[in-house]
Design goal:
The protein has one helix and nine strands. The model has no long low-confidence stretch (mean pLDDT about 90). The two termini are about 30 Å apart. With about 140 residues, it is mainly beta.
């Protein structure tokens, strides 16, 4: 699913970038960004309630930023979430800043939900995740 999303975005970017327009920043890539931290207000919640989770990533000033997020249902109780970032052709500045996305979670049934937040890749190239549990009563 992620590969289809990334391929669609890159195809759209290539079509747009064919225009010769030096006045605007161009997005040169979109990628899954490491999630540094997550804020989940309630680790136990009632069925039918919506809560907003905040996912934070760190970016280089002036040339990177939050693009979107991906939210996948692995099964009834497991959710995999990743921030997607963009990089532009602008010159990067010194320093970083933190930005993120907001994901609403409204469960449809009771149980324990496991959220896996993308935190990058390990030395073997395998995706790593921060896991959080939310109990729905």
């Amino acid at each position: 699913m992620k590969n289809v999303f990334i391929l669609s975005v890159l195809t759209a970017l290539l079509a747009i970038s064919c225009k010769d327009n030096d006045d605007y920043s161009e997005i040169t890539s979109v990628y899954a960004a490491k999630i540094d931290s997550v804020h989940i207000p309630m680790d136990t919640m009632a069925l039918g309630v919506t809560q907003e989770m905040k996912l934070y990533s760190t970016f280089t000033r002036a040339c990177e930023g939050i693009y979107s997020y991906d939210y996948q249902y692995t099964n009834d109780s497991v959710r995999t979430v990743a921030n997607f970032a963009y990089k532009t052709n602008d010159a990067c500045l010194d320093g970083t800043y933190v930005d993120g996305s907001r994901v609403n979670f409204k469960p449809e049934k009771k149980g324990t939900y496991i959220f896996k937040f993308f935190t990058g890749k390990d030395s073997a190239g395998t995706n790593t995740f921060l896991q959080k549990k939310v109990v729905v009563e």
